[in-house]
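Please describe our next protein:
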Amino acid sequence: MRLPRTAHTSRPWRIHEIAADFRVEDVWALPTPGGPDDLARLVRQFTNGDGTNFFSPVPRMLFAVRWKLGKLLGWDKPDAGIGARVPTLRDRLPADLREGPPGPDARAVPFTSVYLTHDEWVAESANRTVHAVMHIGWVPDGADGYRGQMAVLVKPNGLLGAVYMAGIKPFRYLGVYPALLRAIGRKWQASTGEWSAG
């Protein structure tokens, strides 16, 4: 379920002090009911595997088209990424977060972990069009449980980035996010059975 931006901005996340110059693009409730300490399990679900378990054929096709287009137009060259076109957000971390483990990197998508706490995991990606942040938080669900919440924060790179973000918006809302959320829920339910059995 899509949430208002205030579902992210009203919480006392550490990301606010680190990425105040990024715009909150999307916020989603994740179908991942659990207990107060289950964020680490959700992060493992995000970072393990090659992503085929998260995307049905249509989103996979959209991503394949995006990567081909990026290669053709030079959007994803190394000199457009983290540490080249833009510095990593790890450079902005306060000492307590910098000294902690950054958490695992995502293998299925080009996101590098920035930090991991008991209730937040942040990963970043950059290319010629945008510097993006994926924020996964662990929040009370209002019914004595907890669930994941995903926010996407962006800093578009000039006019190219603004046009790019506007152009991909329909594909994100109609093709990518619905399939991603369904897959996250299915995988979470399956792993919950394995978790309780183990």
In short: The chain has one domain: 6-197. The beta strands are 23-29, 112-116, 120-126, 130-140, 146-156. The longest helix spans residues 158-197. The chain is about 40% helix and 20% strand.
